[in-house]
Amino acid sequence: MLGVQEQGIPARWLEQYALGDRHSGERLAEHFRAVLRRRFSALGLNSNDVEDLVQDCVTLIFDALGDFDQSKGSLDAWLSGFARNVARSWWRGVYARRESETAFDVVPEMASPDGVDLAGSGALETALSSLSPIDVELLQMRFGFGYSFDEIAHMSGLTPVNARKRVSRAVEALRQNQGLRQEFGFAV
Prior knowledge:
This protein is mostly helical. Helix content is 71%, strand content 0%.
C-alpha cells in the first residue's frame, strides 16, 4: 500500500507544478533525477555518464511534460521509457564515434593526383555549399574516408539503399553544377 501512495506523490507534484508551484517543481526534478539515475545505472552506464545523461535528460523531460498522459501509465514508467530512449540514442552516438575514429598511423597517405587543381578556385566549395550538410557529410564519408555504403548506412542511421541513393544524388548535383563544369572545361 505504501508503494501506491509513493507513486501518487510525484503525480501530485506534477499537478501542482503545472499550476505554478515552483517548490513542487523542485521536488519533481529531484524525483526525476533519482528515477533516471536508477534507470541509467541499471542499463550499465558508468557513473560519470549517468550524471551527464541525468542532467541532459531532466531538461528534456521538463520540455516534454506536456506529452505525458496519466491515463496511459504512471509517471515513473514514462520516465523509464524516456530514459531508455535517451540511453539508446547515447549508445548509438558512442558506437558511431568509435566506428568513425581511425588511428592516425592507420590512415594512408594520399598521393596528389594529376589533373585539375581546384584548390584556389572556390568552385568546389561553392558547389558543395549548394548541397545539404547531410549530403556533404555523406560524400565525405564515401569519397573522403572511403567507407562502403553499408558502413555509411550503419553510421548515419540510413538503409544501405538510401545511403547509396543520397550519395548518388549528391554526386549528380555536383556533376550538373555549372561552376564545376566550367572549372573542368566541360561544355556548359
